[in-house]
Write a sequence for this structure.
């Protein structure tokens, strides 16, 4: 049995400079609190958001990030979608490995972020950009 | 421009981070702190992050950098007051901040710094690291 | 001969209700001890009213019609109640199925034309089958809620944090350590470290049946998180067979302090806090001294 995911509320923010991460994290927190997500899961989700925003700014020259409250059956959660029009990722499997980095970071970005959330999906096309979707369930 | 204040307390420097960090702010703190350590010849640096609700990989790296840089200038760094949720998230992220000493609160951190310095001072050759959790 | 099925049934309402209740009571599976006759009658009456008062020629083919909202709500409430009271699926299902029988029985008495009887029976059957499915769905949802609540309770009671000394916490872990459990364990332990200002935490795994690489990973995570907070973590209660598995699987636990028993972990903790426990010479009664 597959249950449909339905979106309840959605907000979209434009990400163009570093400071934009602060209001976005606050929106994420508001949504997480609304569905009574526990503090640890809230922190994981906000940290994941932070990682993704940094990636967008560093590799994708900014873009837009959306946060929405969703429900699936009796579960509720928060879904974040990050869309950039940057150069894209050549080898996603490689990028998902621990320790891989093209920039001067620790290379924890994508695989680390994946460990912080329940669902993680990345799609990228060279020259077109990257879309990352992640979901954290309230009790996940 | 926003900056995080650095307080001098005897031989130590105390930084209390009370705002949400973004990259520029963290990088400025790193530069300012290293400058201060050099200028004041501080023996220890206490970074209180009890008001910080998230530490991501970049900020984790900055904390590690501060510790390594201060070490080069002969100062120990102790990160104090990390919230449980932040600690769990950092571990899950794969960033256990190796090489950074930690303590529960400013008082315990201060005691830890004193004991490290005491151990180092009398006999410089014997580098006793027993009290650092690394 | 009837022309309008809904008005016919409305007229026969009390008859349907009596027949339905009789059916339910006759059903040998019905659990009398779980629900009183009076309550059963009350529920049955509400449902018959909600069905027949809102039934008309237009909505008989459409169980989704908003006319049946009240009925759906009642059925949902009753089946969730039954799930929580411990009714079996068969009992809950036959509750609504026996209503269909009662209605069809009455319909048979009223009808002379077999063709029409068949047509109308089919329509009613379809409608009531839909309500049966709805009842079942809510019944299962009710059961799931019960299971969810129990799971929460188990996780809560199985992770106590004990303050064994000023500055020393112990946490006995009983049962399997999966990632969800690890998170609860870590959360409780770290929160308690903050609350009590403890500097040493002992995780006792005597009650953990097996340690595979995944469980070891979870333990290492708990130790790392404790260190980040500024406290030390000791793993105690390592049974010989667990030590064997750990080495055979090639798991590296050399970075953490491990002790065979809670007692030796406590001793280690005392030593690192520079505490001493000894017998006093004055009396034979053992007392602890700093």
């Amino acid at each position: 049995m597959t249950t449909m995911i339905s979106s309840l509320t959605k907000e979209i923010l434009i990400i163009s400079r570093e400071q934009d991460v602060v209001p976005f994290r606050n929106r994420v927190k508001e949504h997480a609190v609304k569905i009574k997500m526990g503090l640890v899961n809230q922190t994981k989700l906000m940290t994941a958001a932070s990682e993704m925003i940094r990636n967008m700014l560093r590799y994708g020259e900014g873009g837009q990030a959306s946060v929405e409250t969703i429900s699936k059956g009796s579960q509720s959660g928060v879904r974040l979608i990050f869309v950039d029009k940057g150069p894209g990722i050549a080898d996603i499997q490689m990028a998902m490995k621990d320790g891989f980095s093209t920039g001067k970071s620790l290379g924890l970005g994508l695989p680390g972020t994946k460990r912080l959330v329940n669902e993680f999906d990345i799609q990228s096309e060279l020259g077109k950009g990257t879309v990352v979707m992640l979901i954290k369930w309230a009790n996940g | 421009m926003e900056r995080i204040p650095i307080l001098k307390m005897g031989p130590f420097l105390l930084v209390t981070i009370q705002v949400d960090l973004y990259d520029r702010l963290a990088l400025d703190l790193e530069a300012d702190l290293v400058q201060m350590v050099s200028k004041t010849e501080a023996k220890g640096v206490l970074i209180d992050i009890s008001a910080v609700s998230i530490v991501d990989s970049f900020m984790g790296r900055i904390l590690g950098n501060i510790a390594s840089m201060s070490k080069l200038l002969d100062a120990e760094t102790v990160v104090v007051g990390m919230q449980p949720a932040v600690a769990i998230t950092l571990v899950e992220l794969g960033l256990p901040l190796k090489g950074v000493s930690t303590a529960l609160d400013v008082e315990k951190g201060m005691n830890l710094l004193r004991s490290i310095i005491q151990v180092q001072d009398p006999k410089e050759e014997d580098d006793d690291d027993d009290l650092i959790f690394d | 001969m009837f022309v309008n099925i809904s008005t016919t049934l409305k007229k026969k309402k009390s008859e349907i209700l009596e027949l339905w209740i009789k059916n339910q009571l006759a059903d040998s599976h019905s659990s009398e001890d779980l629900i009183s006759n009076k309550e059963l009658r009350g529920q049955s009456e509400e449902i018959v009213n909600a069905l027949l008062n809102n039934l008309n020629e237009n909505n008989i083919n459409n169980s989704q019609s908003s006319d049946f909202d009240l009925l759906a709500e009642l059925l949902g409430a009753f089946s969730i109640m039954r799930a929580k009271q411990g009714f079996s699926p068969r009992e809950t299902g036959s509750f609504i199925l026996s209503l269909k029988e009662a209605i069809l029985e009455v319909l048979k008495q009223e009808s002379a034309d077999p063709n029409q009887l068949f047509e109308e029976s089919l329509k009613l059957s379809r409608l009531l089958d839909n309500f049966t499915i709805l009842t079942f769905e809510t019944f299962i949802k009710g059961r799931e809620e019960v299971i969810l609540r129990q799971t929460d309770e188990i996780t809560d009671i199985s992770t106590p944090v004990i303050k064994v000394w000023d500055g020393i916490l112990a946490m006995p872990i009983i049962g399997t350590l999966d990632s969800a459990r690890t998170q609860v364990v870590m959360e409780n332990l770290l929160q308690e470290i903050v609350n009590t200002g403890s500097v040493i935490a002992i995780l006792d795994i005597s009650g953990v049946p097996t340690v595979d690489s995944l469980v070891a990973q979870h333990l290492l995570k708990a130790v790392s998180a404790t260190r980040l907070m500024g406290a030390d973590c000791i793993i105690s209660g390592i049974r010989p067979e667990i030590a064997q598995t750990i080495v055979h699987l090639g798991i590296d636990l050399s970075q953490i302090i491990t002790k065979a028993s809670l007692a030796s972990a406590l001793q280690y903790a005392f030593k690192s806090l520079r505490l001493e426990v000894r017998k006093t010479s004055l009396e034979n009664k053992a007392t602890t001294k700093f």
Notes: The domain at 162-272 of chain C is CATH 3.30.750.24 (Transcription Regulator spoIIAA). The longest helix of chain C spans residues 114-157. Chain C has two domains: 5-155, 162-272.
